[in-house]
Amino acid sequence: MGILAALLLFISVLLHELSHSLVARMKKINVESITLFFFGGVAGIESEDLKPSSEFLMAVAGPLFSLVLAGIFYLIYIFDGNGVITAITFYLWQLNLILALFNLVPGFPLDGGRAFRAILNAYYKDLKKATRIAAAVGKIFAGILVFLGVLGMFTTTGGGLWFVLIGGFLYFIAGVSYSQVVIKDILDKVKVKTLMRKNIKVLNGEMRFKEFVNKLANVEDNIFLVDGKLLNAALVQSVDGNVKLNQLAVPIKNLKVIGSNDTAYKAFKLSGESGGAVPVVERGKIIGIVTEGVLMNRLAWELKFSGHKGLHQHKKIKH
Fold first, then answer.
1. What is the pLDDT, as a whole number, of residue 74?
2. Which of 61, 77, 104 is the last residue of a domain?
3. Fewer CB within 10 Å of terminal CB in the chain, N or C?
4. Are 28 and 57 in contact (CB under 8 A)?
5. Domain for residue 218, yes or no?
6. CATH number, domain with residue 293
7. What is the DSSP letter of 291?
8. pTM for the whole thing?
9. Residue 159 sits in which domain range?
10. Is 316 or 191 the better-scoring residue by pLDDT?
11. Residues 13-43: pLDDT tens digits?
């Protein structure tokens, strides 16, 4: 019974996330993935420039579907005479109801917080301001959960540690979410061509790796062109010293690349997947490189001199 109930709860959470994705697909928004983790799930939405109406509908779809599931399980519970099914559905209708109500709290990054942000964004026409307010509510809610958790641990009412963990998790995500919006607001206004470095050192593909190390170990640069391919020395693991560089370099078709007219924010998103350096490609050739260091330096200058406030220190997370 326990295994079956746990499996059905897992499926309930998956269906909750799928409902977000279904609305997104109806709105012609690509969903890259659905990730289930310890505290719930996240639907990976490709677009970050959502219309307030689209974001609102996507946000409320999950809790509404959980309410429908709670209703279905409740009806089975009250009309079924089988003891096993009754016990399982009693557990499931309550948990789906809790899942729905919890996610409807108007604090970012919960579904209710996303819906709240969509309403604020429609009113203020300012995503950054809307996110700041919704994230602040999310942090307040997270603080309340932590407080209740600590209180529960001292009064032995049970569940205290869970409240602390969930509250801490929500507080962290709320802060990171606002940081990402600020970062996007800044870097979306900067073109890659203003940041890319064109003078990439070209190496002979026949050079042996041991020769490469002896000649260039003290060079600050880690990025090289080898027979039209890219070699990022920072990504090279332990290899045989006799391996040729053209065997280590990566062809353009296997790289995450950008164009010179793309935004710095796109480069920022790809930098974590590209070893801290994103090649700029035009007409099938690498014409430059944008490094994570340059992006972070530009971001730091904009934050310092352009009046952006309230940004927490950025931490690397999977985009």
1. 92
2. 104
3. N
4. no
5. yes
6. 3.10.580.10
7. E
8. 0.76
9. 121-184
10. 191
11. 888 888 988 888 888 887 777 777 655 666 6
